[in-house]
Automatic annotation (TrEMBL):
The chain crosses the membrane at residues 22-42, 84-107, 114-133, 139-161, 173-195, 201-224, 286-312, 324-345, 352-374, 386-406, 427-447, 453-474. It comes from Nicotiana attenuata (Coyote tobacco). Belongs to the major facilitator superfamily. Phosphate:H(+) symporter (TC 2.A.1.9) family. Belongs to the major facilitator superfamily. Sugar transporter (TC 2.A.1.1) family. It comes from the Eukaryota. This is Sugar transport protein 14. It is a multi-pass membrane protein. Keywords: Membrane, Sugar transport, Symport, Transmembrane, Transmembrane helix, Transport.
Length: 512
């Protein structure tokens, strides 16, 4: 059986019979769906910039504003240490992790497209509320609505892209999500750079412009086709075959459609996909896809740089305009890295990108920590040469992350789950990702204050651990059809003890 069913030797291993060509219809569907990444990216880019703007701080966080200007020309790790200020950022991610479970129900029963539309509407409303906020409560409520939008979008979009893509180009197609995320970050940084000069309401424009990608995503979503996998899962077989033929550009889809139907049969037998995810046979997907990779993606420390790049650069002595400009440079590096990953991930594979970039990131973080330890202390001005050096090596870090843990943190989990647990699994992926995103957002500035340069050594140690995790536990998934990934577990040195053929499944699961 395809789709990780473990119960039918006749299914699976039909990938050599799949046929496809890239059609305009397929490209349109993937580009529009990938706009969901721009919501996530725009918020990542805009929130850090807004929290460093004087007009925003004067209106909502006057104590932080006074502390910032008391140390304007100094290196001071603690000038932005304020838990309410960080709650402005992290509240979005707490809302996203809760909403993703509702998104799972919508994604499985109403389709991937329905979740994309729900996410766009919620994000639009949150952007409007933030733009017109008069107090901190309005800011937080608006951020929560943005979080609901991201929870729905991040749950549905990676699944949509992976299900629509042919196996041989699935890596590149799925990374459209990361590309639009990075473009959103880059655009947000340039917008922040411009609106910082508009007093006293420039920050409102930065927050309000989040309505633009939300509106584009909603309007485009009205014309999106549902994925063939979701249509089969809903029992709409004739429509599913028509969509499959249209996106593959051929009528010769019998083998792939048979795999989809086999996977759907297994999915329909599962009444509680979340409970099914805990079964012994699904242990690899749970440990690697649902828990390990989404948690580790945040523990690289990259999102700390994305959230707080302007804040970090100001804390290290850069002026307000220079800090926003420097963060825009790092965002551009992230876009470049995504193109590199899209071009080569289906050639060199997921594991190679994880491991090579991980080694590079460890070296950069150690260099940052050593530089901070040797060259600054409390109250010291940042030498210009050291500032340039920090920007350069942070860009190197960003490029490494942007071709590895950034895009692959969404791509690999979306590949691993069989259809019967796919929407539930992706919900856990988003939930775990958002838990760690929120914790990092909430704790980074206070950690920067107390650990100082040691925070970068901590992240370096975590990347070493996660690189070992990938090396020993993740099989290579490049060019393997999404409904045949389960075959990898049966042949893996460690996971094969959990993923045995169907005749032993009840014995292993402890079910009668």
């Amino acid at each position: 059986m395809a789709g990780g069913g473990f119960g039918d030797d006749k299914g699976g291993a039909r990938a050599h019979l799949y046929e496809y060509r890239i059609t305009g219809y397929f490209v349109f569907a993937c580009v529009v769906a990938a706009m969901g990444g721009s919501l996530f990216g725009y918020d990542l880019g805009v929130s850090g910039g807004v929290t460093s703007m004087d007009d925003f701080l004067k209106e909502f966080f006057p104590k932080v504003y006074r502390r910032k200007h008391a140390h304007l020309q100094e290196t001071d790790y603690c000038k932005y240490d304020n838990q309410i200020l960080t709650l402005f950022t992290s509240s979005l991610y707490f809302a996203a992790l809760v909403s993703t479970f509702g998104a799972s129900y919508v994604t499985r029963n109403k389709g991937r497209r329905a979740s994309i539309l729900c996410g766009a509407v919620s994000f639009f409303l949150g952007a409007i509320l933030n733009a017109f906020a008069k107090n901190i409560a309005m800011l937080i409520v608006g951020r929560c609505l943005l979080g609901v939008g991201i929870g729905f979008g991040n749950q549905a979009v990676p699944l949509y892209l992976s299900e629509m893509a042919p196996a041989k180009v699935r890596g590149a197609v799925n990374q459209l999500f990361q590309l639009t995320t990075c473009l959103g970050i880059l655009i947000a940084n340039f917008i922040n750079y411009a609106t910082d000069k508009i007093h006293p309401w420039g920050w409102r424009l930065s927050l309000g412009l989040a309505t633009v990608p939300a509106a584009i995503m909603f309007v485009g979503g009205l014309f999106l086709p549902e994925t063939p996998n979701s249509l089969v899962e809903q029992g709409r077989l004739e429509e599913a075959r028509q969509v499959l033929e249209k996106v593959r550009g051929t009528t010769k889809v019998d083998a792939e459609f048979a795999d989809l139907k086999d996977a759907s049969d297994a999915a329909r037998a599962i009444k509680n996909p979340f409970r099914n995810l805990l079964k012994r046979k699904n242990r690899p997907q749970l440990v690697i896809g649902a828990l390990g990779i989404p948690a580790f993606q945040q523990l690289t420390g990259m999102n700390s740089i994305l959230f707080y790049a302007p804040v970090i650069f100001q804390s290290l002595g850069f002026g307000s305009g220079a800090s926003l400009y420097s963060s825009a440079i790092t965002s551009g590096a992230l876009v470049l890295a995504t193109f590199i990953s899209m071009a080569f991930v289906d050639k060199f594979g997921r594991r190679a990108f994880f491991l090579e970039a991980g080694a590079e990131m460890i070296c950069v973080l150690v260099a940052v920590a050593v530089t901070l330890a040797l060259k600054f202390g409390e109250g010291e001005a940042l030498p210009k040469g050291i500032g340039v050096f920090l920007v350069v090596i942070i860009c190197i870090f960003v490029v490494a992350y942007g071709r590895s843990w950034g895009p692959l943190g969404w791509l690999v989990p979306s590949e691993l789950f069989p259809l019967e647990t796919r929407s539930a699994g992706q919900s856990v992926v988003v939930c775990v990702n958002m838990i760690f995103t929120a914790l990092i957002a909430q704790c980074f500035l206070v950690s920067l204050c107390h650990l100082k340069y040691g925070i970068f050594l901590l992240f370096a140690g975590l990347i070493l651990i996660m690189s070992c995790f990938i090396f020993f536990l993740l099989p290579e998934t490049k060019q393997v059809p999404i409904e045949e990934i389960y075959l990898l577990w049966q042949n893996h040195w460690f996971w094969k003890r959990y993923c045995t053929p169907a005749k032993n499944e009840h014995e292993l699961d402890g079910t009668p």
